[in-house]
Amino acid sequence: MDGSEVSNGIEGKRILIAGGSGFLGLSMASQFGRDGANVTILSRSIPKAAGAWKHIVWDGRTPGDWVASVDGCDAIVNLTGRTVNCIKTPDHRDEILRSRVESTRVLGESMRLVTSPPPVWVQMSTAHLYGDPPTAVCTEDSAEGIGFAPSVARAWETAFYQSKLPTQRGVVMRTSFVIGQDRGGGGGALATLGLLTRLGLGGKVGKGTQGMSWIHEYDLNAIFARAVVDETMAGAYLVSSPNPASQMHFMKALRKVLKMPIGLPAFEWMVRVGAPLLMKTDPELVLYGRYVIPRRLMEAGFEFRFPELEPALRQLHERKI
After folding, report:
1. Could you give phi then psi for residue 312, rounded to 5 degrees?
2. Could you tell me if residue 7 is inside a domain?
3. CATH code assigned at 134
4. 187 band by pLDDT with thresholds 50, 70 and 90
5. Which of 29, 212, 297, 314 is 20 to 30 A from 308 in CA distance terms?
């Protein structure tokens, strides 16, 4: 497995990306398109960036005219899910769960309605499955965590295994924090961290020892592309750099790349007050974290183009994060 050869095998493939109008979907659709794949995006909203793909509207919950796009495609990639970068009100929690489970179920239903369903289904999941252990380094076989985020991950994966066809090869991607370039769909959380750093606020948060497992968007796309064509890939994979960092060291690297010598720290109480009021997000997203290692990818010999944090951040900065 070589992450520098994303295009190997996907040229001419018909790939359907469900939930493809956000940051991750647009990054993946763009890369797949450049590598010669015929990409269709399923999403509720029109993508905010142009690209060499076809877009079809769906509601993510019920079958409709979009089902025809499933018939005859070579692979389906499901990224659908409401962002977790929000205040966890009861309504938001409900939508986070339902958007993942219901979209997965209706994709499974669609495959039972067509003549030629895709032979492979690549399903997004999350490294949040492992909870927030303070120091433990998790692999695919580590104990699962407790709390809202792990319970959502379990429900998501359960829906996938219940929905995929018995004859389909299924690959589950337990993805960590993706760092990537700002596009029409947004630049993910890295864009926000970059802004805070430029304002001199990119310092230690809380204890600063919480894990920030991360992966560059290029490697993420390479792994998903490999999953489409590699018949040996099946089951659950952690999708993360082999070199996770603490929150403190992540921000130190980002300050260095952005040439910002000052990074004011934020105490826990400041984050708990400021995150919901100023950033409209959940303070626990930055106060807690996890260290994960992609053991299965490493054992398979996947070569990351960006295994180290600082070069990954520098490459994105040169392209303007």
Report:
1. -65, -45
2. no
3. 3.40.50.720
4. low
5. 29
CB 140 within 8 A of CB 96: no
In the block, tokens 């067509």 appear at 114
The rounded Cα 283 to chain-centroid distance in angstroms is 20
Range with the poorest average pLDDT among 125-139, 175-189, 207-221, 225-239:
175-189
**What is the total count of domains within the chain?**
1
DSSP readout, 125-150? EEGGGG---SSPEE-TTSPP--SHHH
* 2 found inside a domain: no
Residue 95 placed within a domain:
yes
pLDDT band at 4 (very low <50, low <70, confident <90, very high): very low
CA 38 to chain CA centroid, nearest Å: 21
Q: Could you give the CA distance from residue 94 to residue 113 in angstroms, rounded to a whole number?
A: 28
Q: Can you give the residue range of the structural domain that contains 133?
A: 14-318
Ramachandran angles phi, psi of 310, nearest 5°: -60, -45
Closest CA to 73 of 3, 153, 12: 12
* Distance separating alpha carbons of residues 39 and 55, to the nearest angstrom: 9
Kindly report the pTM of this predicted structure: 0.94
